[in-house]
Structure formats: structure tokens, C-alpha cells
Design goal:
This protein is an alpha+beta fold. The chain has helices at 11-17, 33-51, 129-142, and strands spanning 58-65, 76-84, 89-95, 105-110, 118-119. Helix 2 (33-51) packs across helix 3.
Length: 149
Amino acid sequence: MTEQTTPNVTEDEKTAAKAPKKEKPPALEDKPFQEFIQQHYLPALQEAISKEGVADVQLKFAKQKYPIIGFTSGEECWQIIGSWQNGQRQFNLYFPEENIQGKKGFSCNEGKQPSTLESFLIDERKTTLELLVTRLVYRLNGQKWLGRN
């Protein structure tokens, strides 16, 4: 009878033999707020609105006071300001918490200062780039501002 020998392999050697896992890059939504908005959200939103037939949309990202009539809060918050038709149609998307997962608001106006601040995406568990783009386009379409409405 021949004796078979099995090599003594320690646990450390077993783990060292496994291929190292590649680290996944962070999700777009996990990037710092300003970086996400400027590098990913604004270009995606510009493209989506243009596809709906609005060629002259201007998008701006700024920290400023709420432009709502009668809203006297002196606080500033980050906003996406979109306009077209020489500024006649304008919308604002508000981020008071400087976080896409936090509270968000929306207002729109046609030639006047907005008078209503609406909540935006309040029921979503996780806000993604796609969700932010599609729901804003959906909301603008609800105003009959896009396409051939």
C-alpha cells in the first residue's frame, strides 16, 4: 500500500491563490453631488429634452434663492434652471439638501415668476440618473411643453 501525501495548505495560501476581485467603480449616483449634476445629469437632460423637439433649451446649475412668489425664505439651494423660447418657458428643479437622494422640488412658469413649489420624486426609494431625467421630461410633457402637444 502506498501512502498518498496531501500538501499542507494553510488558509492564508488559499486566499492568496484566489484571483483578486476587481473593485467596481462607484455608481454614478454615489459621486459627489456637484460632480454628478454637472458631468452626468445636465448632459443627459439636455439630450432627453432635445429628443423631445426642444432645440433651444438652456440648462444652468446654480446655487440661489427660491424664485417663488411669496416664498420669503432667505436660504439658497442648488437648482437646475432650464429655459427655452427666449426664456418664456422656464422650470427649476431644487435640491435643498445638496443630495440627489434627499428632498427635491419643482416649479415651472411661462413668462412670469413661478408661484407654486411642488415636491418632486418624493416616493422613490433610490433616485437614479435615469429616474431624474425621465421623470423631469414626463413632468414637462405634462405641461404640454414638449413635442407636438
